[in-house]
Each structure stands twice: as C-alpha cells, then as structure tokens.
TrEMBL record:
GO cellular component, one term: plasma membrane
Signal peptide interval: none
GO BP, sorted A to Z: biotin import across plasma membrane
InterPro entries listed in its UniProt record: MFS (IPR011701), MFS_dom (IPR020846), MFS_trans_sf (IPR036259)
Designated name of the protein: Major facilitator superfamily (MFS) profile domain-containing protein
Domain Major facilitator superfamily (MFS) profile: 44-502
Species: Parascedosporium putredinis
Compartments it resides in: Membrane
Length: 574
C-alpha cells in the first residue's frame, strides 16, 4: 500500500460520521453523505451490480438505435451513389431526371434547409411527448418519404422530396442523444453514441456495396436500379418504425411509480419497462446524481440559448459534418474524377472502404473519449488533423491516383469519431448546467445549425461550383481547399472551447431546470468508478472529496470515516 494510502487508512479509523450507509448488508460511512440533506443523499452500489444494469440497457436500446440509424442514414445518403448507378447505360439519377449540376446541388442542399428549420422544434417536442412515440414517428415518416423517391420523374419532384425528407427526419440525431441522457450519465454517453453512430458508416459502406447489386436489377419490372434501391430501403424502414413502438422503452420512472397512460400514450401499445426490481432501484439512484426530471419553461430555454458554451460546439460540428456530408454525397464523384476509367460498379466498390475506415476510427476513439472525457478536445483535434492531411493528399498527389484515393481513406478515418465526441461533449456540458432542456436544446441547435456546413458543401462546392467541376487534373481542388478551411474552423473552436472551459468551468447554471445543485462531475457514479479503475492513490481521492463536499472546518475527509472495509479508501469510494 502506498505511504499516503496507508496514512489515510489509519486516520480513517478516528471519528465516526453521523449518518450510516448500507451496501450489500454492510454499514459503511460514506464521504458523499457529509454535510448533505436527506434529499441529497447518494446511494452507492458495487461496480458489478451497476455494470449489469447498464449492460441490460445496452441490449435494449443500442441495437434498436443501430438499426433505425442504419436505415435512415441509407435513405438520406443513397441519393449520392444513385448519381453514378448504371451511368454507362444512361440509367443514373442525373440522366433519367435530366438534372443540371445546379439541380443536383439544390436537390442535395434542400434536405439540410428543412433539417435546420425543424431540428430544434422537433427535439423540444420529443422532450414533451415522450421519446418512444416521437422516435417511431420519425422512422416511419422517413421510410414513407424515402420510398416515394422511387417515383420521381422530374428535378422538381426530387427537390420536393428532399425537402420533405429533411423535415421528417429532423430531430432524429439529437433526439437519440437526448434519449440516452434519460438512461445514462454523461460519462457513459460517448461510447454509446459511437456504438450506434457506426450504423451510419456501415450504412454508407453497404449502400456502396449493395448498390452494385441493385445495378444488376436495372430494368427488372420496368424500374431502374436506383428506383429499386429507394423503394426497398423505404419499405423496410417503415416496418422497423412500427416495430419500435413495441420495443423502445419510455423514460424511466422512480421505483414504485406507475406509468400513466394519458394523452397520446392511450393509443400506443404498452411496453415493458427497461428495468425492474433491484435493477430499477440501482439505476434510479445512479442516474439521479446527474439527471432530474423537471418540467422546463421558456425561461429555462432562454438561459440555455444565452449560454456561450453552445457556440464553440456548434462551430466544431459545422466543419466536421460539412466535410462528412460532402464526402458522403460526392465521394463517388471524387473517385470517378481520380480515374475517369472506373465503371459505376468499381466506383461503388471503392466507395465502401472509406466508411470502413470511418467505422474503425469510431471503435478506437469513442471509448477513449469516455475514459478520458476531460480530454475530448484533444481527441477531436487529432481526428480533424487526420482529415486535413487526407484532403491535402487527395488534392495535391496528382501523379498517383491510388495515393489520392488513400487520402480519401484518411478523410474517412478522421471523420469517424468527430461527431460522436462533439455530441457527447454537448451532453456532458449542458446536462450538468441546465438539465433536460439543456440537452434537448443544445443537441438540436448544435446538430441543426451545425448542418449549415452541409449546405455549404452540397450547394456551393463540387458540382455546385461550375468552375471547379470542369474536367482536368485540378478538378475539385478549390472545393477540397474550402473543406480544409472549414475543418480549421472546427479545430480552432475545439481548442478555444477547451481553454474557456478551463477558465470558466461548467458549473450548474443558477437558472437551470435541474434540481439538485449539489450534483457535480465527481458525483457521477461512472466518473468515480473511472477514477478507481485508473488506480489513483487514496490521498488524491481524499483531497478531491475535501474539495467537493462540505467536510466540517478543521477536519479532513479521513477524519469522518469509521473503520474502512477491505481495500481502504479506494474501495470505499466505489
């Protein structure tokens, strides 16, 4: 045992605290109880019990989120690959509809116009009517609009459907992030966001691979290959949306409360609670450290909008999502410009590895962003620098087409973790400061207004920039350089946010809608267990407790423990 820990263990036997605490039949004295009211008492459980609870939640929520996000992402992005499907026989989307480059750019960008308009109100509605019903509504409506793309005949109909698609899918991405905060503390959300965000990467890869199969269906039943793709993806998504009504749980209730079936709930099927019995009790006491269900008002919403911490996150999202959408929608065209001899099927097959690299990066970075959540800005910045390097390679390695393609793979790798890290950081900051309304508003504004970057890349760049899309060795060079510029905005914003948070912190707003002002990042059970897993010395933890909790003047936390259990101070902290 370290010298500091041994002294802490010995001093811990001196004075008894007033309030006992019971865990697994043993009465231990907890530092978190010192100076707290009865309502502020925190319950602690052993790690195995808590991890069991979150594994059950993972099995109930994450697979459903993964499937719905996979399908909705495919419907949103398959218009990109449809521009090159069966192009050699004139059955690609652009040729069939007689679209000009301006039509293509307008069609792609209209999705983000409606998305930005409806994203914020959609997320606020979800916080009021309940996540299960609203999420199912989003998925069903997305499937309906997506399947209608199989019937487009003119450019105006494609533009109309893209606008409608953005309107109905708005609120899905920030809504999923908001949904997680009902079940997980902030220090656990980054990994979960990354887990279901991989669906977008797999979807992008699969769209490229499966589109090769749809191209072989060209002419079957009188439909072109891209029409079959739109139709089948849409129908499957509708079915999944209906199934979600019987699967996704609603917000968890305090143990013993019965869910009221009033309003819209009367017309929806009853769904088993996510947790029952002891698991529900453990989860309730774990989550109430950081989440407090309280109805919010417009005044609470105003304070969220005036919080300066929102804007650096928005600019971080602006750059990375703009590059991500640009790569997703124009990746096939960029590959075709690298080597004009590639066929449509070859382009589809080369498009998929970009998103496999994206997936690998998510699996590497997002667990690290939770474990080192105070260093999210550093991880985000590393990923952005990888994207910048990849774009420079794609732009200037003119003598080697495979090197240019390798640059696209680097862009895909760098893209992967940036959006999950940005959303997890938003959750962490605004849940602590403003409660549920903070998460609902901040995630919607970050993902909504941040998609202005998508409008820039879809409307103003690549095919939308006539002078830059002319055939030749320098095709798309200016567009790539603009993408590098907006990535620099993201990089600078993350570093500025990190510095400002170090100076001003993220203490709970005195106007916030959340309840218990005593909550802090150290009160997050997951954060405490993370400290234990890192094996920090007992005295360091004791100093943190002295700083965070109201220990009587003149005493240290060592002096308010009764005899410690085996494992000393570290085991006492759970």
């Amino acid at each position: 045992m370290a010298e500091g820990s041994r002294h802490a263990h010995q001093r811990g036997r001196q004075v008894r605290c007033r309030r006992p605490f019971c865990v697994s039949g043993h009465r231990w004295w907890r530092p978190a109880q010192v100076g707290r009211t009865r309502e502020q008492q925190h319950f602690e459980y052993d790690n195995a019990a808590v991890e069991r609870v979150y594994k059950k939640l993972d099995l109930r929520i994450i697979p459903a989120f993964w499937i719905l996000y996979f399908l909705c992402s495919a419907i949103r992005s398959n218009i990109g690959i449809s521009q090159t499907m069966n192009k050699d026989v004139g059955h690609d989307l652009i040729t069939v509809l007689g679209m000009t480059p301006a039509d293509v750019s307008q069609t792609l960008s209209l999705f983000y116009v409606s998305y930005i308009i409806f994203d914020f109100p959609s997320n606020l509605i979800m916080s009021k009517v309940g996540p299960r019903a609203w999420m199912a509504r989003i998925v069903i409506a997305t499937g309906i609009v997506g399947s209608c793309f199989a019937a487009v005949q003119k450019p105006w109909s494609a533009k109309l459907l893209r606008f409608l698609l953005g309107a109905v899918i708005a609120g899905m991405w920030p809504g999923m992030s908001l949904y997680l905060t009902h079940f997980y503390p902030p220090s656990r959300t980054g990994k979960r966001i990354g887990m279901y965000f991989t669906a977008a990467q797999v979807s992008a890869a699969v769209v490229g691979l499966i589109s090769a199969g749809f191209q072989l269906m060209d002419g079957v039943g009188g439909l072109t290959g891209f029409r079959w793709m739109f139709l089948l993806y849409g129908l499957v998504t509708i079915v999944v949306g209906v199934v979600l009504l019987w699967w996704l749980p609603d917000k968890p209730l305090p143990p013993g409360e019965v869910r009221e079936r009033s309003g819209l709930m009367k017309f929806l099927p009853a769904v088993p609670e996510a947790l029952t019995g002891e698991d529900a009790v453990i989860h309730y006491h774990e989550l109430r450290r950081v989440y407090h269900m309280k109805h919010w008002t417009l005044k609470d919403l105003t304070y969220v909008l005036l919080d300066w911490r929102l804007w650096p996150l928005l600019f971080m999202y602006f750059g990375v999502v703009g590059v991500g959408i640009g790569t997703q929608l124009y990746g096939g065209i960029i590959i075709g410009s690298i080597n004009p001899n590639f066929t449509g099927i070859q382009i589809s097959l080369l498009f998929a590895p970009i998103w496999i690299m994206d997936l690998i990066a998510i699996l590497i970075f997002t667990p690290l962003s939770d474990r080192f959540h105070s260093r999210r800005a550093i991880l985000f910045s590393i990923a952005v620098c990888i994207q910048i390097t990849g774009l420079l390679t794609t732009t200037f390695a003119l003598k080697n087409s495979w090197a240019r393609y390798g640059g696209l793979l680097m862009v895909g790798f760098g893209l992967g973790p940036t959006v999950p890290i940005c959303m997890a950081w938003t959750n962490e900051i605004f849940q602590g400061r403003h409660g549920e309304v903070g998460v609902a508003a901040a995630t919607a504004l970050v993902s909504g207004l941040g998609n202005l970057g998508s409008i820039v890349t879809t409307y103003a760049l690549y095919t939308g920039w006539a002078a830059d899309s002319a055939p030749g060795p320098h095709r798309f060079r200016k567009s790539n350089l603009v993408m590098i510029g907006i990535l620099c905005i993201s990089l600078l914003s993350s570093l500025v946010n990190m510095v400002l948070l170090r100076i001003f912190g993220t203490k709970r707003s005195r106007h916030g809608a959340a309840g218990d002002d005593s909550a802090s990042s150290f009160d997050d059970g997951a954060a405490k267990r993370e400290v234990e897993e890192r094996g920090l010395a007992g005295c360091l933890l004791a100093q943190e407790i002295n700083r965070k909790h109201a220990v009587p003047h003149g005493q240290t936390c060592h002096q308010v423990f009764e005899p410690l259990p085996p494992g000393g101070l570290l085991s006492l902290l759970g």
